[in-house]
# Entry
Amino acid sequence: MARRELPEINAGSMADIAFLLLIFFLVTTTMDVDSGLSRKLPPIPEETTEKPPEIKERNVFIVLINSKNQLQVEGKLMRIEDLKKSAKEFVENPADKKNLPEKEAKDIPFFGNYMVSKGVVSLQNDRGTSYETYIAVQNELIAAYNELRNELAQRRFGKAFSDCNEDQQKAIKKIYPQRISEAEPKNIGGK
# Structure
């Protein structure tokens, strides 16, 4: 009996097919883009011999997050859900309390001579703080500023802050500037 030869498969075009499949998957696949916090870094300080102005203790709202993801505000433990209300009261200081930030008069378009808070929110976390807790605290602080701006826009212009024109938004931002100072993480510990 005669042996029959097996037909050969032409593999010359296999490399072309693999290359086309690679290109297809590269073009059609979406890549996850890492998202982060939108922050504007301060400008590089000019070399001066001037001493920076001292910030009075009453003008600083201290927010600490320890390694156990516990929130400590002004020396007292607090739930993250309560942070926004506390931060709003600090920044706005509606009753002009002596333990809350000072106010200074500024001439602001659309508002005239307006009393603006000198308050600064100081946020510091522990090296062991979870990213989720840190982001949750950031969101609450930003939400406090956003709510204050929105409430002022409603009172003054009868519309949401986002619906105000650019000049109106700039004026409101001068009244409630987002002053969040973030210190370098350190070991705060859990209490």
